[in-house]
Structure formats: structure tokens, C-alpha cells
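Quick one: C-alpha cells for this chain, please?
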Amino acid sequence: MRKIVLVCLLVVRVWAAPAAQERLSSELLALPRECDNIPTLYRGEVIGDILTRGEKVWFNVSDGENVIGIFAPRELAAEIQITGKYLRRGDTVKILGEFNRACSEHGGETDIHAVRIEKIAAGYALTQPVSKFKIVLSVVLALGVLVLGILDRKRR
């Protein structure tokens, strides 16, 4: 019951407060005291894994410079389908929530407690073509190993 009241108070505080300003991670991390406990809009790519903690989820969002952890109710993050990993671009989201420079609920971590998550763009697979140089080098090395193997057998 206490958690429900806290979430409701956070939602009221975020929507009753002046309009949230979109901020970059560099600004949030450079001026943490000025940005602490204020409504914040943060935009970026969801990366890594989405970790579930009961009815809440924890995930990371990168704006290209830094990464900030996002803590949100599970239903808000339901739209997120693809997270960024090697050869995969994650969904791009816009987060509205309260920035915490040292969250007492999460052991002093810097995070944003989200009250709204909007998916801006879907993630997609990335391709990384193999260079011709690497193909030629692989063939040359394989032939070299084959020749050395044949010479070694003949010598024995």
C-alpha cells in the first residue's frame, strides 16, 4: 500500500510541477544537485537487458554520451521490444520522470523514476560487412597452414 501511495505522489508531483525540460545525460551528471528530484525528460536508446523486480523494471538508456538507469512500473515498459546489444540498435524512447542523483531506494545509484515512457523509434538489426582484406588474409593464412602441414608430412 505504501508503494502505491509513493507512486501516486510521484505522479502528482511530476504532473503538477512546471513542465519538464528535456535534458542530456551530460547536463544531468554535470549538475546533479541542480537537477535532483525535478521532473525530467530524457531521450535515448534502450541498451542491455530489462531487469524485472516484482511489478517494476530496471533498464538503461543511452543518449550517446552516457547511460542512466531507468526504474519504472512494468506496464510502462511493455512497449519496449528490442534492446541495444552487439549488432543490434535498441528502441529509442522518451522518458518522463524524476531524476535522482543518489536514489535512497536504490543504494545511492543515479537514476530516473519514470512515470511515462514513449517509444519514439523501433530498434533494428545492424549489419557489419566483412572487409575484402580480411577474406583474402584468411584464405592466404589457411593456404599457408595447409602448405606447412603438407611439408611437415613429407618430411616425416
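The radius of gyration is 24 Å.
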